[in-house]
């Protein structure tokens, strides 16, 4: 991998203690590169950014309508959520419509991402369940699709299962990557993840936001997903989360999704733009500052929006006592 | 910063998902570079690697003898410890010899690094104190030095305090960096940290292990620190920690210390070698694999020792369900 000169610096006091490098691809709905930094064809995994694309067959198949999933529930299918009460409740709601419980979810359990919720659960001695897993919406959507297809509910995570085959087809079609060239791995939550060049993932996001060139059933599903996430940004991530704030601050002009290992994908539906940024070393602390700074430099965020996102753009670093000891600073020119 | 081509790869399934770059300096007791990778003069903070050097004035001043500190307590002064029962007990022991309690420590409190200990404390509803902070040994040593100097115990973290001035002098003298060129920041635990080129920190470690050229009082303190850590490696870090295992596996031939933000410093007393490796992006997950592989390639670890450290050399990555989904793989040739 050729090193990228695009960096985000970690300052401690007067000097740089560590640096992060990133790669960027910005494309139009034809997949043509509009902007790039580092290696715009870098091969890596889409991780949770793919959730918005994976939700397409849940809608196209008729599963969402059959089970009466609302927009908040559609947004939760696309989420790496915080495990706050409303997220847990919405996941339980989807499962209830299927006649299922949290025991049907195979994503595993972890503490809620939302620290105050996790702390409160600890203090009350409440053990996290699969519903608190940040992927419980995605897994609930997979179970809805599986049930609608009358497929086996217990093997839904296997790549051979009809659910995963439909999701693979959607990710391949939207990104333009043939199935034989799509790299498969296993995610933190046990289901397949998709490895492709970052400009191909950016193309999938450009098309998601601007699906005019796609077949009508797919285009309609794209519009429904974008509308659902715009209406319920809180269900895409949650309190104090960048993905949620980015939609709120831009009034839905930008819809973006983080993934593990420092990847971020976004679409600007009215501009026909897809954008993917990957921090080379996978560290999320550099991702949000780089995304905000890149959007600012490309003229895609207004000054007032950059200001509203300052806590994500140039965060301060505190020590155990709460003293400010450093800061994170984007340091690049596109 | 010029990018380093020395990398550690994070594999997920068949492909590289993220990569880490590192910089390396290996020097003799004259500070001459024996081996290098990336930028051997990279400026960064020594963080907790400096604890072994900072313990010098605790001994040289007579404080350690005056308060009757034993070798396990000296080792704890050098530690980023696990917060296991024996560490907490030893820190309490040092404070007791001063007539102090954990309330005199200003390092702040955090959960023990040792996950089973932290889990047990949660289940029993025990709140962590400053004694559990990984730096409680260092802070206890600072208080011992302060008490011996009859200095104010409540301002011991300030750079103007005699304790910090003596520690600054020791770090400067051992590394050969003049005080006016030493960069100062604030650590996670509130005390000053020292910013210098990595080859200068390596020199401090070469001299720590092979102090024959130093004044007798300092050389004697170096020997006492090395002997203490060799005798009680469990007090330098703890169960399932690399720093402890490296000493155990090599029978004390190599003594190394991790620091936050991916820095590792080691000394080989019999070889007169100091070695510092810094992961550019500060991620610890790449540090241990890079250190073991570099030591292996330089012929400084035997095959059997590399095997005994396999869990740190090429760790596997598991997901929430415990399934193996990837691995960490050093990928460089020095």
TrEMBL record, chains A, B:
Pfam families: Asparaginase_II. InterPro entries: Asparaginase_II. It comes from the Bacteria. This is Asparaginase.
